[in-house]
Specification:
2 domains; four-stranded parallel sheet; alpha/beta; Rossmann fold; Ribulose 1,5 Bisphosphate Carboxylase/Oxygenase; 8 helices; about 35% helix; four-stranded antiparallel sheet
């Protein structure tokens, strides 16, 4: 997929965009083919970093002990220390609100058992439990500021119950160049995880929150005709 093709589709997408009182999110949608996600070895679930942050603040909650809490409070949005865990036990409503307000939960590695016992019933079903694949389970010696920066550009590609993958890559407030870079990063990273690369992608589309989707392949076909 060529950069100019992507920029052409982005331009077409913006021309049909109606002004809203919020900055709409740009999503990419991949429809796959030729793989069987019922087989564990063909499921996709991995994280990767985009060239640009996704245009919205990434909210992070740290679940750590008192010693590390003094550092995390300076860097992350919310810190809950081990000593505070009992206050959250069986507080389902409060935990759900916490999950809604944060994109990632960071865990001190040696506290994972306590974290699972206290927060697992709520964070687990919401897909918000601290994930080692995302680098969110850390030792007490982990450098925290680089981690915060990395999480701001982190994206996840995951197949669930069907062959469609949808992930946010930015907002309309970002430039077309920035959005294009993120689109290409997602597309090219996905290719490396598919057994037959392009042949496993039936089509790929982009859309803003309130817009109709446009196929990325359309720009390539149009230019080929020219």
């Amino acid at each position: 997929m060529e950069k100019q093709h992507v920029l052409t589709v982005l331009k077409q997408l913006r021309t049909s965009l109606k002004k809203r009182n919020f900055s709409q999110t740009l999503d990419i949608i991949f429809n796959l083919q030729g793989i069987d996600i019922k087989k564990p070895d063909q499921k996709l679930d991995f994280y990767f970093n985009l060239p640009h942050a996704k245009g919205k603040k990434t909210n992070i909650c740290a679940l750590v002990d008192a010693a590390l809490a003094s550092q995390t409070r300076k860097i992350f949005d919310t810190t809950i220390s081990k000593e505070e865990f009992p206050k959250w036990t069986n507080k389902t409503k409060e935990q759900k609100k916490l999950a809604e307000e944060h994109d990632y939960f960071l865990a001190q590695a040696d506290l994972m058992t306590s974290i699972a016992a206290t927060f697992g019933k709520v964070l687990g079903p919401k897909g918000k439990m601290p994930n080692p694949k995302a680098g969110c389970v850390i030792p007490t010696t982990a450098p925290l500021e680089p981690l915060a920066t990395r999480l701001s550009t982190l994206a996840r590609i995951q197949t669930k119950n069907d062959l469609t993958i949808k992930l946010p890559l930015g907002t309309e407030a970002m430039t077309d160049e920035q959005l294009c870079d993120n689109i290409l990063a997602a597309y090219n990273t996905l290719l490396t995880k598919l057994p037959q690369e392009k042949n496993n992608i039936r089509n790929s589309l982009i859309k803003f929150t309130m817009s109709q989707p446009l196929p990325l392949e359309a720009a390539k076909k149009t230019e080929a005709k020219k």
